[in-house]
Structure formats: C-alpha cells, structure tokens
Amino acid sequence: MWYNPAMDSVIKNLPEDPVLLKKLLAEKHSEIEHLKSEIELLQEKINILLAKRFGPSSEKQTIDISGQFDEAEDDQESTESEEPETIEVPAHNRKKPKRKPLPKGLPREDVIHDLPVEERICSVDSSELVEVGREVSEQLEIIPAQIKVIRNIRIKYGCPHCHKGIKTAAMPPQPIPKSMAAPGLLAYIVTSKYVDGLPLYRQTSMLQRIGMDLSRSTLSNWMIKLGILIQPLINLLRDHLLASGYIQMDETTVQVLNEKDRPATSKSYMWVQRSFSPGGNIILFDYDPTRKQEVPKRLLEGFSGYLQTDGYAGYNLVGSLDAIILFACWAHARRKFDEAVKALGKKGKLKPGRAQKGLSFIQSLYQVERRSKKMTPDERLKFRQEHARPILDKFRNWLDKALPEVPPKSALGMALGYTDNFWPRLIIYLDNGRLEIDNNGVENAIRPFVMGRKGWLFSSATRGADASANLYSLIETAKANGHEPYRYLHHIFKELPKAEKIDQFEALLPMNLTPKAIS
C-alpha cells in the first residue's frame, strides 16, 4: 500500500477522547459524502456535454415501452445481469434504388436523336429499316435567373385644336411607388432572404453576376417598405389568431444594432404565436426589445381560450387572467428526462433505471397521440380519456414515489421536479381534443427564423426588425396553408396595392387563397 508521510501528523493530531473522535469521523464522513455527491453531479454534466457534442441531436431513445405499466414495483432499478442483450437481425436483400420520376408539371423539350440515313440498313438482308419505337430518357436542366426590363409606356392624349386637356393613362398601383422594382424582383429578394436564408449582401453579389447592380441599402429599404405594405394583412391575421381560441407561443433572440438607449450587443426578442383552426393555421412574429411578461400580455390583448407555452415564467401574468387557460408542453418534460438519460453515460445503457422509466411514460403518451392523429377532436378526446389518462395516473404515482428518493440537483431530480411543478398544466391537454400534446408546432415555425439568423446575423435598426417580423409572418402563414412562398408573394405584391376595401384585403390572406388560384 502506498505510504504518505503526511498521514503521520494527521494521526498524531487525532483526539484521544472517543466522543470527540467519533464526532470528527462523522464530520469527515459527511464531508466525503458531500464531495461524492458533487462528483456525481459534475460527471452528469460532463456526460450531458459529451452527448451534446458528439451524440445524435435527436431526442429519440430506443426504450421498450411494452408491458411497462403492469406493476407498481417496476420503479426500482434493474438488478439483473449487465450483459447486453443480443439482437438477431434477419438477413435481407438490398434493393436497388429506383430513380425518382421528374415532376410531370415541368415543361418538356424534346431532343430527337436519330440514326444517319446510311446506317438505317439491316445488317442481315440489307433492307431499309423502319421506325418500330422510341426510347425516352429524361434529364433535368436549369436556366439561371434571367433579368428583363419592363417598360411601362403610358399613352398621352391631347386636343388637336386647343392643344390643352392633356390626358395620360394611369400607372397601375405598385408595391413600392416610383421604384424600379417590379413585384417579381421583390418577391425573389424576399424569398431568398426569409425562406432561403440568404443575407442581402450576398444577394447583391448574386445580382451583380447577372448584370444588376443594386446596393445593400437599396434592398434594405425595399424590405422595410414591403413590411409596411403588408401591415393590413398582418392586422387581419392577428384578428383571426386572437379569435381562434387556441394559441401556441414561444420566443427567440434577435440582435438589433441600433436600439434607443441600448448597446449594440443587447439581446432582443422575436415573439412567435401560432394558432390552429379549421379555417387555416396562422403564424405571427413580433419584435420586442425585452422578454418581460408585459409583452405577451400586450400581444394577447382580447384573446380568450387556451395558451400553450414552455415553462418560462414570463407567461404567468397572462396565465393568471380568467379568460386564458395556460397549459404546458410535454416535449419540454421529455427533453428533461432525455437529458437525464444522457447524464448517465455508458452506465445508463447497461443498467436502465428511473430516467429511462420516466422517459418511457412520456413515450407512451406520444404513442397515443400518433394513433389518434387523424381523428376528429371529439374522437381524440374520447381516445385520450381511454388510453392516455391511465398512463398519466400511473406516471403520477411513480413520480410521487421517486421525488423524495432522488437528489433534486441531479439531472433526474430536475426532470422529476420540472414534471411535478408543471403537472397541473401538463395534463390540461386531456380535456380538449383540439389541443396538442406539445408546443412543437410553434417551435417548428421558429426554426426558419433561427436558420436565417445564422446567415444575416442581426438587424441594423428596429424598423428592419419590425419589417422582418411582418415578412416572416406572411411567409410562414402562407407555407402553413400550402402555398409556395415565391408564387404567393408575387401575387400579393401585384394585387395588394390595388386593394381598398376590407373584403379585398381578406381575399388575399393565405387561408382564403388556394395555390391554384394564384396566377
């Protein structure tokens, strides 16, 4: 055994009184246990960081949920052999992949490849060959973006006698008056930035390659003016959203360089709302410099119904209003248990325990949702009561037993604590077949913004952030209602300047237009 000379002085300084010695040993034992607990927590954090850095980003876990809820005693950790189970995979034949057919709607150009006349002779009896069929193969070709100049020629008329009373044909209303930009160009630039994530400075270089020299500031000004142009549509979409009775809400960061009384490095926020209704889905973005609870209160003024959010406390103010029923998202609870599984590292794969057990409960709830996906709200409500409620009852019993036995600061303890704290909000979805089990709908709506932000990084001023919010709102709502973004925007930029009455604006909303109706 390794000898440490320093131990001699430690042993000499030990008290001779047995009572004092026992007290000292108890203190040292408590200190060791505390350090062991700290080491376990640090190891969990390391495992989580390693999983995030090197593991798959998906939250899917291969956990067997069959027969998971038969016995209450199943909550104890497995004591069986740690030998990994051997799984036999039957042999299979790899099928040769088939080429996907090219879309039928694309225009076709036939290129005929024929034999020279001198080769149309039979090699057997020298007879002249005749056509007996054709072999057709298709290739996909692309024509790079082309630009053209539209010359608007306005005919002028005048009196040949008095040489007065000159009349000139009116110019059709334009999306940006007195601008060189036609609706198609504007739709192209908006789609490239807000759908494809191409920042304006890259677009200026791309446009220069095809002969169009436009500055970044010009494109920026166009985006701001288009954000103002579509404001009437955004106002109508907000009215429909607030009348929907069910909204999902989330927020993400955005950087705005020139904000009043704020440094350029300050974080601002893009608040996102999504409604689900038979008349069509609506997605709205709103820029605000803060994440304060007054923001959702302002955005939801006049709303009555269900509001689904994550666990952010900023929504508690609106949740306290009588008109709003605030409920939570099971995906966030699942994320906590998934993190607890990853915190176990290799140990968790060999010896499944409570983290996997908690995750399996949630997976069973999602299995119920998959089976009821195509049902009507009434059918789904009944199906949830029959299948999801028993799972939740067993989950609750298991949760109550596990909570006092798990350190609250551990990854599993935080997963258990999160689920316990939000339990009343998590089970509200059971009472209405129209409600979703999670907030993924609005999180998916945020994703295009987050991906685009990686390219354009920031907005220069608040006007640009507001314009971006409006344009993202219209584009994502159009996509949610089955429209191809460029075609829809091209149509809107042509027709919106002509609209004068409320019904004309209503007719241009994404849910009131079919993709086939767009010219």
What can you see in these coordinates?
With 519 residues, this protein is α/β, with parallel strands linked by helices. The protein has a domain at 330-438. Helix content is 45%, strand content 8%. It has helices spanning 6-12, 18-54, 183-194, 200-209, 216-229, 231-242, 294-299, 316-319, 330-343, 346-350, 354-371, 377-402, 411-421, 423-426, 440-456, 462-480, 485-495, 502-506, and strands at residues 156-157, 167-168, 246-254, 256-258, 268-275, 282-288, 305-308, 324-327, 459-461. The strands form three sheets. A five-stranded mixed beta sheet has the order 6-5-3-7-8, with helices on both faces. Strands 1-2 form a two-stranded antiparallel ribbon. It has a two-stranded parallel sheet with strand order 4-9. Helix 2 (18-54) packs across helix 9 (330-343), helix 9 (330-343) runs antiparallel to helix 13 (411-421) and helix 11 (354-371) runs antiparallel to helix 12. The longest helix has 37 residues, at 18-54. The termini are far apart. Residues 66-87 have low confidence and may be disordered.
